[in-house]
Amino acid sequence: MTTKLTPTAAALPSTEPAHVPAPLPGPPAPSIHVRAVITWLAIFPLVAVGMMAVAPLTEGWHPVLRALVLTLLVVPAAVYLVLPRLFAVYGAVMRRLSSRRTGQ
Q1: What is the chain's alpha carbon radius of gyration, rounded to the nearest angstrom?
Q2: Each residue of 40-99: pLDDT tens digit?
Q3: What is the DSSP letter of 9?
Q4: Distance from C-alpha of 101 to C-alpha of 79, rounded to nearest angstrom
Q5: pTM
Q6: Among 1, 30, 74, 104, which is least packed by CB within 10 angstroms?
Q7: What are the residue boundaries of the structural domains of the chain, listed by start?
Q8: Under a CB-based contact definition with an 8 Å cutoff, are residues 43 and 74 in contact?
């Protein structure tokens, strides 16, 4: 009669995660109201300029099709270009105000 050998616990790979250092505490996320204002500050100028820019090209188009084209241009520009910069500026201003309050 043969017995099947099972690997010992020492031979098994560890299932415990490697030590991962805790992330450094960062500034708190802006409130939903601040995010709404910053988003509006990004979207409004892009829509206003975008409407004027595409108006000559889309003059006879249905308004829904015009809105589709405009949002295809405005949303990626806002999400990838404008909003990250505005939030970075907001963060810098908040860090500066925070350091002034703490006297550093």
Answers
A1: 27
A2: 999 999 999 999 999 999 999 999 999 999 999 999 999 999 999 999 999 999 989 888
A3: T
A4: 32
A5: 0.69
A6: 1
A7: 32-102
A8: yes
